[in-house]
Amino acid sequence: MNKQVLEDLSRKIRDLAESSPAADIEKNLRALLQGAFTKLELVNREEFDVQADLLRHTKEKLAELEAKVSELESMLHKNNK
Fold first, then answer.
1. Per-residue b/e over 19-49, b at no fewer than 16 CB within 10 Å?
2. How many CA atoms lie within 13 A of 67 on its CB side?
3. I need a labelling partner for 47 at 20 to 30 A (CA). Which of 8, 9, 12, 64 fits?
4. How far is CA 64 from the centre of its chain?
5. C-alpha–C-alpha distance, residues 79 and 81, integer Å
6. Contact 34, 28 (CB under 8 A)
7. CA-closest candidate to residue 56, choices 67, 45, 48
8. Phi and psi, residue 23, nearest 5°
9. CB 17 within 8 A of CB 23
């Protein structure tokens, strides 16, 4: 019997909350936050990880190329002497 009373009370509270201005406030707040997040141009974690890996690979390649250029410059200076 107590279980039925609690279920009825829960249903009435839920119905009241759905028909109250609080439901509209929640919807408006969600829309406002969604708009703000869209303007921030956020990315998900997976895309962030992909870009971080790409950046790491690019930095490694740049370091290799800088070392090669330095080596070639050194060889050029030795040949010019």
1. eeeeeeeeeeeeeeeeeeeeeeeeeeeeeee
2. 6
3. 64
4. 31
5. 6
6. no
7. 48
8. -65, -40
9. yes
Sequence ranges of the domains in the chain: 1-42, 43-81
Contacts of 51 (CB under 8 A, 6+ apart): 43
Whether residue 1 has pLDDT greater than 60:
no
Give the Cα-Cα-Cα angle 15, 21, 24 (nearest 5 degrees). 95
Q: How many CA atoms lie within 13 A of 27 on its CB side?
A: 8
**Confidence at 2, pLDDT banded by 50, 70, 90:** low
SS3 of 1, please?
A: coil
Residue that has been written with the tokens 């974690």 in this structure: 45
More reliable by pLDDT, 5 or 57 = 57
For the record, the structure tokens of 64 come out as 């290799």
